[in-house]
Amino acid sequence: MLFNSIEFVWFLPAVVLLYYLVPGRFRWILLLLASYTFYMFWKVEYAALIAASTLVDFFAGGQMGRCKTRRARLPFLILSLGSNLGLLFAFKYANFFSGTVNEFFATDLPQLDLLLPVGISFYTFQTLSYSIDVYRGRQAAETHLGHFAVYVAFFPQLVAGPIERFSRLGPQLRAQPAFAYENFAHGFRLLLYGFFVKMVVADNLAGFVNAVYEAPADFGSSTIVLALFLYALQIYGDFYGYSLIAIGSARLLGIRLMDNFHTPYLSVSVADFWQRWHISLSTWFRDYLYIPLGGNRVALPRWSVNILLVFTISGLWHGASWTFVLWGALWGMAYLIEKLLGKIIALPEIRPWSAWHFVHALKMFGIATLAWLPFRSADVGQMKAVLKGIRDNLDVADDLALAVPGFVCLLFFLFSDGLLYNRRFDVWIGDRPFWLRWTVYAALIFAVLVFAAVEEFPFIYFQF
Amino acid sequence: MSSIVQKAGIRVVLLAGMLLGMDQLYRHVLFPRDLAEHTPIMEQVRAARDRAEVVYLGESSNFTFQDEDSDKRSISQFAAEYFPTQRWATIQQGALHAGQYRQLLRNIPADAPLETVVVTLNLRSFDATWIHSKLETSLQKSMVLARPGPPLWRRFQLSFRAFDRKTEAERAADRRAQWLRDTLEYPLGELPGRTVPAWDSAVGERGVPGPDGKRSDFLTSLATQYVKTYAFQIDTLTNPRIRDFDGIVELCRDRGWKLVLLLLPENVTRAGDLVPELPWFMRQNRDVLVARYRRAGAVVVDLLELLPNADFSDQDWTTEHYGEAGRKQIARRLAEAMQPWYPEKFRNVVYRKTTPRIFVNDCEGDKIWGQMGSLTDGRAHSGRKSSRIGKDRQFSLTFSRAVPDLDTNYRDSVAVSFWLYQEDLAHRGSIALEAGGDATGYLWDTTAMHRFNRVQNQWTKLEARLPLWPQLPEAEVMKIYLYNPSEKWIWVDDLRIEFLGR
To answer: Any bridge partners for residue B375, and if so which?
Structure first.
């Protein structure tokens, strides 16, 4: 079920209403049913994968909980890692792997005819974090299968995060929050702003961006460059909007999910960017890959390799394609260059809203835009076609009218992110006077109802 | 708790007030623009609502014409000619069906001047292919703003996609499931298959012979298409079109409108030639519909078998697209059915028999001419394809016509035009005129293209007026094509042939 669909518009209030009507001890049943219903709108069969992942990790977690030493827990960790990564490999990477082998070694490995289950990368990473935490002894094993199943399948964040840790989400699911006006106020604000950013901003950019990427030869160089910049805004609006709707939906149920974005295009460095963009994934890689590889405590060459490795795997996490590998590697190199330059040239401290802040924000927006090129391209061929279009189509006429919605969106993000710098919309608006608050609500409601794109553009991150 | 209720109450009232204001703002400022953009058919509905006495609702059968037609008017325009003092309006869009007709008609209130509603009863719209058509999602989307309710509510439904929006894959799966579910009952013998997939594959395996007696892939493929389209038996309890047409009957009854259901001609002759058992199913379905809706009080004009094969535009597909003569016949039958209601307004129309003299082909493969194998999608002036000649394929797409079928007043000369792309001027391309028969023997004239055009590496238009032979009237067949007996390829596109008189 898509958030920006009529089904969700009825589904969410129904679940929220029932949630507060059902006695607290039975709420997990409601949430579990709701979550599986939500997921089965895509494909009923793939709910079995979540169920299987849940059972294996619950079993593995339970067994690890009974073991006193890490050594004794290790087989169960391997079971959890093996089953989750095996699923991920089978559904997401097997064809990429066999295709690559076939191409390089002229073999004839078969291609599987499997549809990628929505959100598989997200929920497998979520359950993996639980298993690893139990293995490390940082998390007690969950003893209630129902609660654990809700943790794995909790519908607001099931298909595209935020990727939550059990230590944060588990206790909230177990708690039985009473109805609180504050939760509703925050929840509705987040939903409203999320719908606006996704349906009005991102989706209205998507048509233009898609058209350019599909046939770059038909567009002038400056139009193609404009499309690259607008994609940077589109994907931000798309994923940021999704995350706000997810967080807002959970908040209506009295559950607080972690933030996924903190005005990323106002970041001043690569490191800063990755502390503001898809935060739940960045912290996952930090905690479960980067730090186990040695973190900052290893020698420079090893550290450089680790950084490249983490970013490249992060790219591969997004999709089974060389374009994603390239995207990750580009970010890894940018990160390394920035850190190594920082050792040579001591940069002054950048104060928020100083001239330097703007210069660095522009630089970061440029880097991000460039990196989105392989990310958005369906394959290397399309990426090359876009670059070729920029180089060769200087004499193709540009339609400046196409740029207008783009500039409107750019101004919107400059304005809104400027206002919201390091703050979330629901908190910021909550501090405004009543008249201003409701004027903003009215404008957002009207925009969502009337200016939402009519074409269906699924959330970009649902494909991961 | 009471303070929360009070707080929430104030906000709910405020929100309701805001929504009412927004609806007014949207209704007057942005709704007309949205309607024009997303539901342009509402403009036709508005015109029908405001002034029409008769409204004709149809799909592409109404407005599709052949390039050769000398009168390209639609069925409804021809029919309206029989009632010159009556105000007719047409609501038409490709692939529309009863579900949408019903929805659109609801927008015409009972106090509108409307008296009679004519709705095309398209047999094919009852089959699984159309019910689960891939066009359905975009059609459903285009109808959201035509629904009842405040404009802001309708736009909300559009924004949140509150319509049947299955993907193409889902619709294909539904179609296949229905084909497998519906078993066919045929009392006159044994069918090659009891379900559409089984029958389809049996026809495909058996093959359909061409004129030379050998299996023709073209005819076999066409036969399987006919099976997929017409091998069904309407279940009046479950077929969604029945529900929609029932709704139309009910709506017309409630609003005091007379209703004519125009059961459109299908190519029964062709169906029988390709798959002998099929016409039985077509007639059975026709009988079900005619009986049901006559019983319900509608006038059903049964034209299922009105037209011969030659009146159907698409010879390589199953459609209700008719040539000029076919559209005129349908219009006449419709007018005759309505005549008893409006005897004073009816005026007989007699059309002079016309013979087409202009023939065009855009080389996209939709129109069957000779030498279809010359079509290639490597290069095109318009669309995606052109006719490529040279090397081992010397003849372009070829126009061919029996000479008696050409208008006797226009046999003096022929104007040939087409778009040409030549990479190398060393080709030997020419325009060829060919005719023959027992009385005339073989006639053949060529005119070199170089006489008219020497532009390289770009599409340029070539126009030539060429005299025809004085003895042409005695010939049996006339052919016009482009001929290139050289090793250099040339490409031609958008051919137009016009026969001219003195």
So the answer is: B387
Mutating which of B22, B161, B165, B167 best tests the A interface, going by the most A Cβ atoms within 10 A?
A: B161
Contact in structure between B389 and B489 (CB atoms under 8 Å) = yes
Of A131, A201, A206, nearest in space to A165 by CA: A131
If pLDDT is split at 50, 70 and 90, which confidence band does A110 have? confident
User: What tens digit of pLDDT does each residue of B245-300 get?
Assistant: 999 999 999 999 999 999 999 999 999 999 999 999 999 999 999 999 999 999 99
Alpha carbons within 13 angstroms on the beta-carbon side of residue A34 total 27
User: A443 at the B interface (CB within 8 A)?
Assistant: no
Q: Judging by DSSP bridges, how do beta strands B358-361 and B441-448 pair with one another?
A: unpaired
Of the candidates B38, B159, B165, which has its C-beta nearest A449's C-beta?
B159
- Helix (H) / strand (E) element for B283: namely helix B278-295
Q: Is the pLDDT of residue B202 over 70?
A: yes
Please name the residue of chain A whose CA is at the shortest distance from the CA of residue B141: A454
**Tens digit of each residue's pLDDT (9 = 90 or more) over A394-406:** 877 666 676 777 7
DSSP 3-state of B22? helix
Residue-wise pLDDT tens digits, A367-413: 999 999 999 998 899 999 999 999 988 877 666 676 777 788 888 88
Inspect the interface and report whether the beta carbons of A454 and B141 lie closer than 8 Å.
yes
Prediction ipTM score: 0.88
For residues A148 and A28, the answer to whether their CB atoms sit within 8 Å is: no
pLDDT tier for residue B445 given thresholds of 50, 70 and 90: very high
Strands (E), B31-140: 54-58, 88-92, 116-121
Nearest Cα residue to A278 out of A182, A362, A163, A169: A163
pLDDT tens per residue across span A202-233: 998 898 899 899 988 888 888 899 899 999 99
CA distance A236 to chain B (A): 20
Residue A345 has pLDDT above 70, yes or no: yes
The DSSP secondary structure of B339-387, one letter per residue, reads: TTT-TTT-----PPP----EEEE-SSSSS--B-GGGEESS--SSSS-EE
Task: Please check whether residue A44 touches B, CB under 8 A.
Answer: no
Please determine, for residue B1, whether its predicted confidence score (pLDDT) is greater than 70: no
Q: What confidence score (pLDDT) does residue A68 get?
A: 87
Q: Which band of pLDDT confidence, cut at 50, 70 and 90, is reported for residue B109?
A: very high
Q: Could you read off the pLDDT of A123-142 as tens digits, one per residue?
A: 999 999 999 999 999 999 99
Write the residue in B30, B152, B162 that is nearest to A6 by C-beta: B162
Q: How far apart are the first and last CA of chain B?
A: 96
Peptide bond connecting B197 to the previous residue in cis, omega within 30 degrees of 0: no
- Does the beta-carbon distance from B159 to A452 stay under 8 Å? yes
Question: Which one-letter DSSP state was computed for residue B110?
Answer: T
Q: Are strands B477-483 and B430-437 parallel, antiparallel or unpaired?
A: antiparallel
- The SS3 of residue B445 is strand
| Cβ distance of A454 and B162 shorter than 8 Å | no
Residue written as tokens 């191409």?
A103
Q: Which residues of B touch A442 (CB under 8 A)?
A: 18, 22
Distance from CA of B356 to the nearest CA of A (A): 39
pTM: 0.80
> What are the residue numbers of the active site of A?
318
